[in-house]
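Re: weekly structure request thread

Next one in the queue (225 aa):
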Amino acid sequence: MLRLHGFSSSNYYNVPKLALLEKGVSFEEVVSYTGVGPKYRPEYLDKSPLGKVPALETDEGFISESRAILEYIERAHPEHPLLPESAFAVGKVQELSQFIELYFELVARRVIPNLLSGTQPEPTVLNEVKTGLTKASAALAKLSDFKHFAYGDKFTLADIAAILNLPVVRNVGKQFLGKDPLSDVPGLDAYCARMEERPHVKTIRADATADRPLFMAHLKELYGI
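Done, posted below.
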């Protein structure tokens, strides 16, 4: 059986977790928080070279990085595919997924430590984050109308990217920018509401809520946050 190493508060971990749930693939969860060194689980480096989560344990060995894990899952378990059939549609799903990861999640992540610690970001950093998120929000409507799913008429990897990364952006916007930068994207609010009703998304959210006290305790122990 596959074993997924990581923790449920992490959106990176939840990307392959949600894929496995949606595809109906059996797997076991192994709780592993980030942080490596002589004080804290140095053996995790054998699973993920930089000590990042997630890591997927297979019969053949370990795979790290969410995108690589998704590729493995889709190829090893083709039933209930999370990619369309045509090459162009696959490209569009991957385009939207990468757009969300690069221009939303990674930009917003710059101030996540401030969000967790309750501190104010440096003004220069916050201005750069605001500029990046504003630009990406204006462009998002060119990639999806969010009428049914993120792309096409079926649930795909683009939906996983949207469901697990865009809430981070919205939280950052509300906390530090005085506005949700995604509030004006046509169709997005209704789309997000629909996605939150999916049973496996509810599982992801419930598990993240249950894990949060443990994750915060880990941060306090390791970093003093």
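The beta strands are 2-6, 27-31, 55-58, 61-64. The first strand starts at residue 2 and ends at 6.
Next request, please.
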